[in-house]
Amino acid sequence: MGRFLMGWAKFDDQFTDHPKVVSAGALAELLDVRAVIHCARYETDGFVQSEQLSRLSLGISSPKRQVAALVRVGLWEEVDGGWVIHDFLDYHPSAQQKHEEREAARERMAKVREKKGRSSPDVRPNTNGTSPYPDPTRPVPKAKPSDEPDRVSEEFDRFWDQYPRGKAGKLGGDGPRKPALQRWRRLSDEERAACLRAVENYAHHIAQPDSPNAAHVTTWLNQERWEMWQEGEGPRDVAALLGTRAYS
Q: What is the pLDDT of residue 173?
């Protein structure tokens, strides 16, 4: 019988006492936990398809009411085709990162086998990007500092100043500046340029009557929403941008 490789969903050890979680209520909290685990398992980058609600809410009364509570307190954001869990990618690796880790594992094992000149059935790559007994509290590796921190910081200042204010009237869509800057430093030159082109279009959209509240800036960057707001384009479908995945 083979060993079962499992992934992990990360939760802050103060999660249950967070004011947003307490305000949402116990049933909404349970739904949120299930959704986070679901997104981690199926690598959806925090996107919850509306079709999955019935399965995730088994045994939970009034699931639509619980979703509304999660949206109200800011734990979830409503998007086309479902919802996005706020700041999911701040605590979990993206699907792209997991894919790259699996590919790197395959390449490492291929080199080991090539060096040994044989293929051992007992040595296999960790294609799930996990270990049988991973440490769920291990920190996420810090990004390497940029070679040009001054220029990158100046670009971020321009982006930050143009990003629309949130419902509380704060810059960054009410999102904190520090994690947004950290995410900005991990972007390529091309991606930062695309953000600067997109943010003006996004801010104009948010300023229109009946527009939704601005997304927290880190969420906007993590989910690469700049691709939705390039020049000459209207907003693209968020569900299509994040990608739909087969569930098994």
A: 58
